[in-house]
């Protein structure tokens, strides 16, 4: 184990996989000479050269399509979106080409590509640069979608994503790049996709969250512990395929669920989790599932409005208290 | 067998020998028959969805493919039956795919617009206009990365030229020197929109010049002209891995799809009839006969052979069962 930042963990994952497999190439805007808009690809050009670390012009649809075409012939491209907001320009390539190629070809052509970069709310970047993007992707059969919360997950999951034979959408967060944590240096350390993590065991309520919202939930859980509320924290890590089993297992234990998500609530991750918890564990619930979500508004610029848009610790704590005070059978 | 004097003279006049002439005619006829039978099956309700016929454009696929090697790749849009067949795919499995049957190339899950055949390097039919142009560049990227000397041929319609992805692909293919040959089949219409109503520059090959790409226009109704122009491009691309753009002047004799009657409102009957005088199969057949490279008997044998193969394909598709219900959920992901 070594202590490193989330950014360094991603960088290490890329290096290890590029050393391990000559078919891995990194493609994107400013990934080489500039060393990444957020420095995730720092040093890669020096170590691997311009053949494997490919700077592109600003043409998301074009270079994502190139990554997909190259993957059809067996390369394993890691395409960086400078931020995921720009992935919308490549949405057709991701949804109509990458996700469906294997199916449309009856299994003849799979697309082992990773599309990665930062996404989610970020400080005062306003409507077009500060938004949760996973929603647009996890609806699509054929894609896998990852949101890694900790440096360790960032490394282990990125390595799994690169080794996966299918298109993986890997959305990091610029607000987490500087977060430090323990990371295994073992190059064989990978975290399989589709496995949730129980970040903290508890008995009274299951709180499901990821990325920045998980860090907020941890603080809330610490505070509520003083009131005698024992919170179990579950991080899905992979949103598609979702580890329904781990979540349901936790619900069977605590009988109460709060889902926290940064994005707008309407048809969000909380809606989905709430639906499958109801389907699979209705009789285990002692209270209705609560959702604490981003407001159903675009991200405003003004600091005070921005705060209102995202779930605060107070709102999370209030929701947890509500479900815990609800009178179950 | 030793060639006669007359045969030699004829081959020289036509530019190809009897063997190649037979193959070109056979390949074009086979596509024509395939499409005619597909149209018939569509009216019988055996094929559903959209069905876009390649009738009239056969010389492009056949001429271009005739200069490719087995390890080269081809990729196309949704009007791709001809390209797939020319690349060497089995008409039986193609027709079964159109019928939505389990022996189809894509197990019945792709349909007419999504034929794929890995075994012959056919990278698919893609139905979002313009979207497969970057995929072609990506395949070329992989070829270059592996230092192979194969090429990718990418067929697309005039409609794709107005899309951003056409321009992104040409720019990137030129910038990165990718071994891809873009062949625009300019049949003058994207559904009902003529090139004049869609493009500020209707000389499509000229767009290539802007990107520093070798660009040429060719008579897409002349299989030998296509063969020559594409052959030149392939040879150069193989040598220096740089892209080419070829505009093939062609015409579709049928409607945009089976849902669009041939003589629809956006073009006149007279125009369609006039263009049918340029039928690439008739033109080539007559030239080969006149040059004495092929005989009437040769032509009859080739026609019969092509028809028989396609009849077999229809029978095969008819006999193939529907895909089993479990297949709804297979191939969504590649499992290891
Ligand atoms: C992005 C996109 N927009 C619209 C369509 C609907 N559409 C299907 S075919 C077509 C015309 C394309 O014409 P062209 O590229 O010239 O090819 P052709 O049909 O002549 O072979 C259109 C508009 C589509 N499939 N994809
Ligand atoms: Mg057209």
Strand content of chain A: 15-25%
* CATH architecture classification of the largest domain in chain A: 3-Layer(aba) Sandwich
End-to-end gap of chain B: 53 Å
What is the topology, as strand order, of the major beta sheet of chain B?
A: 2-1-3-4-8-7
Fourth-level CATH superfamily of the domain at 58-89 and 96-126 and 141-248 in chain B: Thiamin diphosphate (ThDP)-binding fold, Pyr/PP domains
| CATH architecture assignment of the domain at 58-89 and 96-126 and 141-248 in chain B | 3-Layer(aba) Sandwich
| Element-by-element helix/strand order of chain A | EHEHEHEHHEHHEHEEEEHEEHEHEHH
Output the CATH topology of the domain at 58-89 and 96-126 and 141-248 in chain B: Rossmann fold
Q: Quickly give the structural class of chain B.
A: alpha/beta
Largest β sheet strand count, sense and barrel closure of chain A = 7 strands, mixed
**Quick one: how many beta strands of chain A?**
14
Radius of gyration of chain B: 20 Å
- Just give the CATH class of the domain at 58-89 and 96-126 and 141-248 in chain B: Alpha Beta
Count of helical regions of chain B: 12
Ligands in the model, by name, code or SMILES, are: thiamine diphosphate, magnesium ion
Round the Cα radius of gyration of chain A to an integer and report it.
20 Å
For the termini of chain A, the CA-CA separation is 46 Å
Assign a percent range to the helix content of chain A: 25-40%
Explain what you see.
The complex is a heterodimer of chains A (329) and B (336). Chain A has 2 domains: 2-183, Rossmann fold (3-Layer(aba) Sandwich); 197-325, Rossmann fold, CATH 3.40.50. Helices cover 38% and strands 19% of the residues of chain A. Chain A has 13 helices and 14 strands. Chain A has a 7-stranded mixed sheet with strand order 3-2-4-5-7-6-12, with helices on both faces. A 5-stranded mixed sheet of chain A has the order 9-11-10-13-14, with helices on both faces. A two-stranded antiparallel ribbon of chain A has the order 1-8. In chain A, strand 13, helix 11 and strand 14 (290-294) form a beta-alpha-beta unit. The radius of gyration of chain A is 20 Å and the shape is globular. The mean pLDDT of chain A is 97. Chain B is of the alpha/beta class and 336 residues long. Chain B has a domain at 58-89 and 96-126 and 141-248: Thiamin diphosphate (ThDP)-binding fold, Pyr/PP domains (Rossmann fold), CATH 3.40.50. In chain B, 45% of the residues lie in helices and 11% in strands. Chain B is built from 12 helices and 8 strands. Chain B has helices at 5-14, 18-43, 58-65, 81-86, 91-98, 132-145, 164-175, 205-210, 223-240, 269-276, 280-290, 296-319; strands at 73-76, 122-125, 152-157, 180-186, 189-190, 193-194, 214-219, 244-249. In chain B, strands 2-1-3-4-8-7 form a 6-stranded parallel sheet, with helices on both faces. In chain B, a hairpin with a 2-residue loop joins strand 5 and strand 6 (193-194). In chain B, helix 2 (18-43) packs antiparallel against helix 11 (280-290). The chains are: A alpha/beta (329), B alpha/beta (336). Magnesium ion is lined by residues 157-159, 187, 189-190 of chain B.
